[in-house]
Amino acid sequence: MIKEGQPAPDFELPDQSGQPVRLSSFRGRRVVLYFYPKANTPGCTKQACGVRDHTVDYEAADAVVLGVSPDAVKAIKKFYDKQHLNFELLADEDHAVAEAYGVWVEKSMYGKTYWGAARATFVIDAEGVVRKVIKKVNPETHDDDVLAALRDLDSAAA
């Protein structure tokens, strides 16, 4: 997994409309890059709606939020529209970006093992350096944890 203090690996992925989004295009702004396992599942919905409902807080912190899952563009578009989301969702169908960040992991459920995206968040500073890694994200507290990390960046810069 990418560690704090490392440069965030650059990538380009299609958003919910199929338009390419490149991480490096956000240089000069903070980026909250969060990985989630699957669109339209309860935990992922709670997490995405939390981000949606805290838009003002993210804007105040000068942070762009990008949600990444291994879903196809069609699936994230449906999720985006259904939940009235107001930030970019990115389709990492071949999970290359999840692998680059170290969040493509072996999981198990009901005795079966499979590979999927771990729920993890990376707070990236304006220069493209990872400043906070939140592993094993709790959808209930995700926004509080991320916004606290953004405030910590402000404190460190002061």
- Secondary-structure content class: alpha/beta
The secondary-structure element order is EEEHHEHEHEEEEH
Q: Give the biggest beta sheet.
A: 5 strands, mixed
How large is the share of residues in beta strands? Answer: 25-35%
Strand order across the biggest sheet?
5-4-3-8-9
What would you call the shape? globular
Instruction: Count the E strands.
Output: 9
Oligomer: single chain
Query: What radius of gyration results from the CA coordinates?
Result: 15 Å
Average pLDDT metric: 95
| Distance separating the two termini | 29 Å
Describe the structure.
- The chain has 158 residues and is of the alpha/beta class.
- Helices cover 32% and strands 28% of the residues.
- The protein is globular and about 50 Å long.
- It starts with 11 loop residues before the first strand and ends with a helix.
- The relative contact order is 0.23.
Write a concise synopsis of the structure shown.
The chain is α/β, with parallel strands linked by helices and 158 residues long.
Secondary structure topology:
Blueprint: E1 12-14, E2 20-22, E3 30-35, H1 42-53, H2 55-60, E4 63-69, H3 73-82, E5 88-91, H4 96-101, E6 104-109, E7 112-117, E8 120-124, E9 130-134, H5 142-157
Parallel strand pairs: 3-4, 4-5
Antiparallel strand pairs: 1-2, 3-8, 6-7, 8-9
Give structural attributes.
globular; 28% strand; 158 residues; alpha/beta; five-stranded mixed sheet
